[in-house]
């Protein structure tokens, strides 16, 4: 596979290979010298048309840990702000000899166009496009879940080749605007987990009945009956709602009352259950400070795991063909 555009494109074997490779990458990051020579001489371009801190820095760190040269491109202050098209930007990157392009774009489908329009001879990694997909976020979430919970099924530790069969994951919040939710539903289903989306009716996308998951409008009921092993809280994306909340819910207080993860709901989770959040968090809205800072929360760990997962993705897309394992992806 030359590109990583959507978790829906990944087979189970490909997804497990990515997670296994991420585990190998993570093991190297405990060394005194963290850099690997794997991508020496290759050039990775971070092409960001939307603001980002965690994802951009994570990809930059991952590429540098693999010894690649990194070029950071921001739409603000570039020729894009003067009206340059995506095509012309891609042709410029092609002329510069980019080997891989990590792209975040406000328009759903932009990475797909970049990968398939013939403008570039480089691997394209989707770092988030509109409300469509965020595959590496879903992969780092699955990696984090696997590290903590796969042992529940009788395995030991993380387990090479392990999937997530038998685990239950609740994804809670602003599903309508969330590319993280879409990417996670597809990947978790591929890996064998059972997924329930929890959101107010106004924040559930049209057509969700075709997704491989259940849908609930009641968080307390879901915690009591579904008994999730992992609870993923989604950020309320007020910047994508006209007027802040844009009429999607009556008030922040009411949203928190019905869909926020607080100390009371945290106490109702199973002893082994973990809490995830893609960040940045709206503390006091979708998650309380007590929940975010609790021992159950693996939110900071998700950030660290993101580097290993993105190292794995860059390696398998750029150098994987040079190894026997890489031929599977």
From TrEMBL:
Keywords of the record, alphabetical order, are: Pyrimidine biosynthesis, Transferase
Origin superkingdom: Bacteria
Name of the featured protein: Aspartate carbamoyltransferase
**UniProt pathway annotation:** Pyrimidine metabolism; UMP biosynthesis via de novo pathway; (S)-dihydroorotate from bicarbonate: step 2/3
Kindly indicate where the leader peptide sits in this chain: none
Q: Tell me, how does this one assemble?
A: Heterododecamer (2C3:3R2) of six catalytic PyrB chains organized as two trimers (C3), and six regulatory PyrI chains organized as three dimers (R2).
**What EC number(s) are associated with this protein in UniProt?**
2.1.3.2
Species in which this protein is naturally found: Isoptericola haloaureus
The Aspartate/ornithine carbamoyltransferase carbamoyl-P binding domain is annotated at: 2-146
One Pfam family assigned to this protein is OTCace_N
UniProt-annotated binding residues for L-aspartate? 82, 179, 235
Catalysed reaction(s) here are: carbamoyl phosphate + L-aspartate = N-carbamoyl-L-aspartate + phosphate + H(+)
Q: Identify the residues that bind carbamoyl phosphate.
A: 54-55, 104, 134, 137, 279-280
Q: What does this protein do?
A: Catalyzes the condensation of carbamoyl phosphate and aspartate to form carbamoyl aspartate and inorganic phosphate, the committed step in the de novo pyrimidine nucleotide biosynthesis pathway.
Q: Which family does it belong to?
A: Belongs to the aspartate/ornithine carbamoyltransferase superfamily. ATCase family.
Q: Where is the Aspartate/ornithine carbamoyltransferase Asp/Orn-binding domain?
A: 166-317
**Tagged with keyword Nucleotidyltransferase:** no
Which InterPro entries does the record cross-reference, listed alphabetically?
Asp/Orn_carbamoyltranf_P-bd, Asp/Orn_carbamoylTrfase, Asp/Orn_carbamoylTrfase_sf, Asp_carbamoyltransf, Asp_carbamoyltransf_Asp/Orn-bd
Gene Ontology molecular-function annotations: aspartate carbamoyltransferase activity
């Amino acid at each position: 596979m030359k590109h990583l555009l959507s978790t829906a494109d990944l087979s189970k074997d490909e997804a497990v290979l990515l997670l296994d490779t991420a585990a190998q990458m993570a093991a190297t990051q405990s060394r005194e010298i963290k850099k690997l020579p794997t991508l020496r001489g290759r050039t990775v371009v971070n092409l960001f048309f939307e603001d980002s801190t965690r994802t951009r820095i994570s990809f930059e760190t991952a590429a540098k840990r693999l010894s690649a040269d990194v070029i950071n491109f921001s739409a603000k202050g570039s020729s894009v702000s003067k009206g340059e098209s995506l095509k012309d930007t891609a042709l410029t990157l092609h002329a510069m000899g980019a080997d891989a392009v990590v792209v975040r774009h406000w328009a759903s489908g932009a990475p797909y166009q970049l990968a398939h329009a013939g403008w570039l001879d480089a691997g394209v990694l989707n770092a988030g496009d509109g409300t469509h997909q965020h595959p590496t976020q879903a992969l780092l979430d699955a990696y984090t879940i696997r590290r903590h919970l796969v042992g529940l099924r009788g395995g030991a530790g993380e387990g090479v080749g392990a999937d997530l069969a038998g685990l239950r994951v609740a994804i809670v919040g602003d599903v309508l605007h969330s590319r993280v939710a879409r990417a996670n539903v597809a990947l978790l289903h591929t890996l064998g987990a059972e997924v329930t989306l929890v959101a107010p009716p106004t924040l559930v996308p049209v057509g969700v009945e075709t997704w491989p998951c259940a849908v609930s409008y009641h968080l307390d009921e879901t915690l009591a009956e579904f008994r999730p092993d992992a609870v993923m809280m989604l950020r309320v994306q007020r910047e994508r709602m006209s007027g802040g909340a844009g009429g999607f819910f009556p008030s922040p207080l009411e949203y928190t009352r019905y869909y926020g993860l607080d100390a009371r709901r945290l106490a109702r989770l199973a002893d082994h259950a973990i809490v995830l959040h893609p960040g940045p968090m709206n503390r006091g809205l979708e998650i309380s400070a007590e929940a975010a800072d609790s021992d159950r929360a693996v939110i900071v760990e998700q950030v660290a795991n993101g580097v290993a997962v993105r190292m794995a993705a860059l390696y398998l897309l750029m150098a994987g063909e040079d190894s026997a394992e890489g031929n599977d992806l």
